[in-house]
Amino acid sequence: MRYVPPSREVLAEVLLAAGPDESTLCAGWKTRHLAAHLVLREHSPWAAGLGIAPLRAPMERRLAQTARRVEDPGHYAELVDRFRRGPAVLSPLALPALEHAANLIEFFVHTEDVRRSADRWAPRILDDEYADVLWEALIRRAAVYYRGVDVGIILRRPGGQRHVVRKAATSVAITGAPGELLMHANGRREHALVTFEGSPDALALFSSSGQ
Fold it and tell me: Which of 202, 147, 144, 145 is nearest to 172 (CA)?
């Protein structure tokens, strides 16, 4: 089953409901900046700046310009609708496999970036198949997410499924639902409903690494 199209729809609805000037968990970004980011990464030739350092500044300027243009709610709604329609037919991101790889985690995390920036929020209840797909995506990228950590890392789901990210003499186990583990792995640590288990030394090392 393709999970990205319905995830796109959910993210668009969350952005529309929030309006252009609500906060997000993305530092310095309001919802209009996030909407601009989502559109530019699929439609702008400057999107390469997301991963290439010399092009990052031009991409950030383009994003800021787009965000300023959509301060008006009507223009903001048009931008969100452009995101909702997805990439152009001839775009590589229109290919289901590439769409899945590029957007499955992106759309989940950014949906929560909007939802969890509110003073009161609750985690979404995900169906089992979607949770399994998020788990598989997480463990494929886990080594990248936790690179530079000086302890072993074990990810665990509440039902007992586990994945050893890296081995070391001392380890920390992080337990949570797949969506919560993804939020933690993507730097949303204060807004991820996870628990930690390990020796005091392991936990201290883990904390000192910024985790």
Answer: 202
